[in-house]
């Protein structure tokens, strides 16, 4: 799934993304590798945020779960951060400008971060930075000439 183009226009109903600040901070720590917080999110009413961490780390079953369970917008955030401009366009059309800007920043477009900061979405800028670090580490590993890729 991660290598295929996803047809966002065929997505069903999307579930709302409305989280208190402390949950967003916990999500940020889970993104940074805190497995305890990732598990806590998953087991305490926020399974999509825990699954997102796996999806961000290229786990196809987690990406599929997001799509099938009403969180295609979270998958589009990841996919847009990987350079899929159609995912970013889809997020904008769906009214998720914050996620679209996060995706642009994850994909190394400074304008994404600028928009988040100018519109007082500091916590989402913080989250996007954490996601970008994860994606950069994955990319670094993928392009390391000392590793064998099959």
Total of DSSP H or I helical runs spanning 4+ residues: 9
Q: How many β strands by DSSP?
A: 0
The helix-strand sequence is HHHHHHHHH
- How much helicity do the residues have? 55-70%
Q: Pairing-aware structural class of the strands and helices?
A: mainly alpha
Shape: globular
Any idea what the radius of gyration is? 15 Å
In what range is the share of β-strand residues?
A: under 5%
Could you name the ranges where pLDDT drops below 50 across 5 or more consecutive residues?
none
Oligomer: single chain
| Number of individual domains | 1
Average predicted confidence as pLDDT: 91
From the N-terminal CA to the C-terminal CA, the straight-line distance is: 17 Å
Report the sheet with the most strands, covering strand number, pairing sense and barrel closure: none
Topology diagram in text:
Elements: H1 21-31, H2 35-43, H3 47-56, H4 60-68, H5 72-81, H6 85-93, H7 97-106, H8 110-118, H9 122-142
Helix pairs in contact: 1-2, 1-9, 2-3, 3-4, 4-5, 5-6, 5-7, 6-7, 7-8, 7-9
Structural summary, described in words:
By secondary structure, the chain is an all-alpha fold. 65% of the residues lie in helices and 0% in strands. It has helices spanning 21-31, 35-43, 47-56, 60-68, 72-81, 85-93, 97-106, 110-118, 122-142. The chain has one domain. The chain is built from nine helices and no strands. The radius of gyration is 15 Å and the shape is globular.
């Amino acid at each position: 799934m991660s290598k295929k183009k996803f047809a966002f226009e065929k997505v069903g109903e999307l579930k709302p993304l409305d989280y208190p600040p402390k949950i967003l901070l916990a999500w940020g720590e889970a993104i940074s590798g805190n497995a305890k917080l990732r598990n806590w999110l998953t087991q305490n009413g926020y399974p999509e945020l825990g699954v997102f961490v796996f999806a961000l780390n290229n786990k196809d079953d987690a990406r599929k779960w997001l799509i099938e369970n009403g969180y295609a917008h979270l998958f589009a955030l990841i996919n847009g951060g990987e350079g899929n401009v159609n995912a970013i366009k889809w997020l904008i059309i769906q009214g998720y400008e914050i996620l679209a800007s996060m995706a642009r920043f994850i994909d190394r477009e400074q304008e994404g971060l600028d928009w988040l900061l100018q519109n007082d979405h500091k916590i989402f800028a913080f989250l996007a930075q954490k996601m970008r670090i994860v994606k950069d580490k994955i990319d670094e590993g993928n392009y390391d000439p000392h590793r064998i890729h099959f």
